[in-house]
Amino acid sequence: PCRTGAYKVVVLLMFITLQCQCLTQSTNSIKRPDKSYHATRYSFIDIPLNWYEAQRFCRVKFTDLVTINNMYNNNKLLDALGGQVSLTWIGLHRGASDRWMWADGGGEALFTRWTEGEPNQLAADEWCAEASSSGRWNDVSCAEKKDFICYDRE
After folding, report:
1. What three-state secondary structure class fits 86?
2. Residue 92 pairs with which residues in a beta bridge?
3. Which keywords does UniProt give here (predicted)?
4. DSSP assignment string, 99-152
């Protein structure tokens, strides 16, 4: 009889914990100055960081740096951010295989929106990608400090 009672207490505590987490997450989501569409929330972060710092920030506060898989998402992201995108980090970087990969583990970038002549590896250390207000991308040094865009799956 004692085991059954203990089990019920554990289940109840798990339920209460889950409810508290959901309430906390909902409250945080409401406070963020984000614009959403579909099941993804994008956040423009106005804190200049290098690409790796920006990625760490996004992984702690959200899901990761933004992944852009097609032209529809690229345009929707630009619309949602209302012109705030001006040379900001996105989650694209050159991987060990010398291919452009998404930071969230989504694999090689099959869709790209490079500015004409890019990526050009003009400097030897241009391993990360920035997006401009036109929605075009450029390869730049990951050490540069830029604002960035995070995404959060809801």
Report:
1. coil
2. 102
3. Disulfide bond, Signal
4. SEEETTTTEE-SS--BPTT-S---STT--EEEE-TTS-EEEE-TTS-EEEEEEE
- pLDDT digits over 38-47, tens only? 457 889 999 9
- Report which residue type is found at 130: E
- 87's tokens: 């040379």
The two tokens of residue 69 are: 């898989």
- Asked, as a colleague might, if the bond just before 119 is cis with ω within 30 of 0, I would say yes
| Residue that the structure tokens 């075009």 belong to | 136
Query: Residue 36 contacts by C-beta under 8 Å, 6 or more apart in sequence?
Result: 42, 80, 154
pTM for this one?
Answer: 0.72
Environment class of 66 (CB within 10 Å of its CB; exposed 0-12, middle 13-18, buried 19+) = buried
